[in-house]
Amino acid sequence: MSSLNLIAHSALRGAMAGSVLAIVYTALAIPAAGLLLMINNIPVGKTFDAMIGAGVFALCAWPFAIVLGIIPSAIIGAVGGSMIGTVVIPFRTRLSRHGTTLIGLLVAMLIVLIAYLVFGQSMYDPRENSFAPYIPYLFWFVGPSIMAILGLTWVGWSMPH
After folding, report:
1. Is the C-alpha dihedral spanning 67, 69, 72, 75 positive or negative?
2. What is the pTM (predicted TM-score) of this model?
3. Residue 80: which of 105, 98, 99, 117 has the closest Cα?
4. Count helices and strands in the chain by DSSP H and E runs
5. CA 40 to chain centre
6. Mean pLDDT of the region 5-25
7. How far from each other are the two terminal CA atoms of the chain, in whole angstroms?
8. What does each C-alpha distance from 61 to 22, 56, 88, 102 come to in angstroms?
9. Which of 30, 32, 80, 122 has its CA 20 to 30 A from that of 94?
């Protein structure tokens, strides 16, 4: 496999991993948000209204998830995959599957670190005494970061030898 084919192959795998994992994350996060909405409305007697709201939220959330989560995840996965392919090229005859997996993990950690330095610190206020301010941070940063690390590590693991 030529160098350009290796980069294209790993970029395609990265895009695939990013989009599939973003779809899985979305499919878990939307019902969880609806459930949280219902649980928070039980004490005030608005459970039925919350159920309707959760259903409408689920319908409206998917288009936004595609634009704000799935497409960016595919792009980040493609960039990460191409980075993995580029790093592997000089060493591909000497690297084992463990080595390419480690490269995938390190590239993913680098991307997560950059994202944290750019976006992560502004997502929460460490002076707050409750857990509530950390919920958006967990939803918008920690969950997607875990998915990115899993996906790009898989891209490294799946590199052709």
Report:
1. negative
2. 0.85
3. 105
4. 6, 0
5. 27
6. 96
7. 9
8. 13, 8, 38, 35
9. 80
Q: What are the tokens at 94?
A: 């000497």
Q: What percent of the chain has pLDDT over 90?
A: 59
Structural tokens at position 157: 């693991």
Q: Tell me the two tokens of residue 87.
A: 């790093």
141, 120 Cβ separation under 8 angstroms: yes
16-31 pLDDT, tens digit per residue, is 999 999 999 999 998 8
What is the widest separation between alpha-carbon atoms in the chain?
65
User: How does pLDDT run across 79-97, given as a tens digit for each residue?
Assistant: 999 999 999 999 988 999 9
Q: Distance between CA 151 and CA 119 in Å, rounded?
A: 20
